[in-house]
């Protein structure tokens, strides 16, 4: 145990040290009257990839739009109907006629949509057409002057994992934001509302709420997809985003502009995903079981055969489609996706399992659902 005076000495030394080194914010400040800004270090030229990224953004920015939507609601007390804000999203100019593209889920359930251009002008948009199964919608605005340019169109069938991509959109309402990344995977599937969206591009470019409907670009500044969704438990970007490929967009959008809806190429057969899973599991076969062939359909003319039902309500399988033009199908959704790569009037070759034998059947696609 130290004597008491030793503790007093230690305490006094500590007070001196504190007084010497602790800044006195309440007293005089150690200012420097001759302080000047520091000399700026020479930056040098931007790197080549930085210049390329800046050029892509500046060239594409004016083609990207900010979309806000409203929905009609009724006051339960007054019974009056009024519009309230519903959500925001992104889109991009498709052509010189004022058509622009966004996701269907951006405008789903909305009573009106307002489109804001990069120069600040606002326009009320009209719905031209939509394809919920592709999550694509076409809007139109009447731009009388200084029409924003359409984004150049690229291709998606030749994309490679590892390619650089650039996403422009309005995440969380932060308008005209650029994020970059790579193609992480191809031909992904995602469950949408009531349907499965196929052939999606997966990317690690940051895609957040509000990016939906914005363009995904390649390193040449060409459109290769529409940013459509993210995979994230928190609802924010987790490095897994998805985009509808431009080859799908370039096939669907002209139909929407011409007629307001998309007509799927079809075979003229009846199929069911739930029944198909049970039959495939019982038979140990990966394919699509044809339940019924519509009379007079393309499938009927090609000689395809449906299933038959026994007296005890058992099912005797008919033809089982296992591939379309050599590409395998193991579900109804995959069959629709394979057919969707073609147009009405195209001839496709189906690989069919019939009574234990594999046969090839050519079918001319008709308009319809299946």
How would you portray this structure in words?
It is built from 7 helices and 23 strands. The chain has 370 residues and is α+β, with helices and mostly antiparallel strands. The chain folds into 3 domains: 80 residues, Beta Barrel (Thrombin, subunit H); 96 residues, Beta Barrel (Thrombin, subunit H); 103 residues, PDZ domain (Pdz3 Domain, Roll), CATH 2.30.42. Strands 1-2-3-6-5-4 form a 6-stranded antiparallel beta barrel.
- State the secondary-structure class: alpha+beta
Question: What is the third-level CATH name, the topology of the largest domain?
Answer: Pdz3 Domain
User: How are the strands of the largest sheet arranged?
Assistant: 1-2-3-6-5-4
Number of strands: 23
Largest sheet: 6 strands, antiparallel, barrel
The span between the termini is 94 Å
What is the CATH top level name of the largest domain? Mainly Beta
* Number of domains as seen in the coordinates: 3
Helix fraction? Answer: 10-25%
Range of strand content: 35-45%
Low-confidence stretches: none
Spatial shape: elongated
Count of DSSP H/I helices: 7
Please write the string of helix (H) and strand (E) elements.
Answer: HHEEEHEEEEEEEEEHEEHEEHEEEEHEEE
Mean pLDDT: 85
Assigned CATH architecture of the largest domain = Roll
What does the secondary structure layout of this molecule look like, with pairings?
Elements lengths: L3 H18 L26 H13 L3 E11 L6 E13 L5 E4 L1 H4 L4 E5 L5 E10 L4 E5 L23 E6 L7 E15 L4 E8 L11 E3 L5 E8 L10 E5 H14 L5 E2 L2 E2 L2 H11 L4 E2 L2 E2 L4 H5 L5 E2 L5 E2 L3 E5 L2 E2 L3 H8 L7 E8 L2 E8 L1 E2 L3
Antiparallel strand pairs: 1-2, 1-4, 2-3, 3-6, 4-5, 5-6, 7-8, 7-10, 8-9, 9-12, 10-11, 11-12, 13-23, 14-16, 15-19, 17-18, 19-20, 19-21, 21-22
């Amino acid at each position: 145990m130290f004597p008491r005076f030793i503790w007093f000495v230690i305490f006094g030394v500590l007070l001196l040290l504190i007084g010497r080194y602790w800044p006195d914010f309440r007293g005089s400040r150690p200012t420097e009257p001759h302080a000047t800004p520091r000399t700026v270090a020479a930056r040098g030229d931007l790197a080549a990839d930085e210049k390329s990224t800046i050029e892509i953004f500046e060239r594409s920015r004016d083609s990207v739009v900010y979309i806000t939507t409203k929905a009609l609601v009724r006051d339960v007390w007054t019974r009056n109907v009024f519009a309230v804000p519903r959500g925001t999203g992104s889109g991009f100019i498709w052509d010189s006629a004022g058509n622009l593209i966004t996701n269907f889920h951006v405008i789903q359930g909305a009573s009106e949509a307002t489109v804001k251009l990069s120069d600040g002008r606002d326009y009320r948009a009209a719905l031209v057409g939509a394809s919920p199964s592709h999550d694509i919608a076409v809007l139109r605005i009447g731009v009388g002057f200084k029409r924003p340019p359409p984004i150049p169109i690229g291709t998606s069938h030749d994309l490679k994992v590892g390619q650089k991509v650039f996403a422009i959109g309005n995440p969380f309402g932060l308008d005209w934001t650029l994020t970059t990344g790579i193609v992480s995977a191809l031909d992904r599937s995602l469950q949408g509302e009531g349907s499965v969206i196929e052939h999606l591009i997966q990317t690690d470019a940051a895609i957040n709420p509000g990016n939906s409907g914005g363009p995904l670009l390649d390193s040449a500044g060409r459109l290769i997809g529409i940013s459509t969704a993210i995979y994230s438990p928190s609802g924010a970007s987790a490095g897994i985003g998805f985009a509808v490929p431009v080859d799908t967009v370039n096939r669907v959008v002209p139909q929407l502009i011409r007629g307001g809806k998309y007509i799927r190429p079809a075979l003229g057969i009846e199929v069911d995903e739930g029944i198909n899973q049970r039959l495939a599991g019982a038979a140990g076969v990966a394919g699509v079981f044809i339940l019924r062939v519509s009379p007079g359909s393309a499938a009927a003319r090609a000689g395809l055969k449906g299933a038959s039902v026994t007296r005890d309500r058992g099912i005797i399988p008919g033809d089982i489609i296992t591939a379309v033009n050599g590409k395998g199908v193991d579900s109804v959704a995959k069959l629709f996706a394979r057919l969707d790569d073609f147009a009405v009037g195209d001839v496709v070759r189906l690989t069919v399992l019939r009574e234990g034998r594999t046969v090839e059947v050519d079918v001319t696609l008709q308009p319809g659902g299946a």
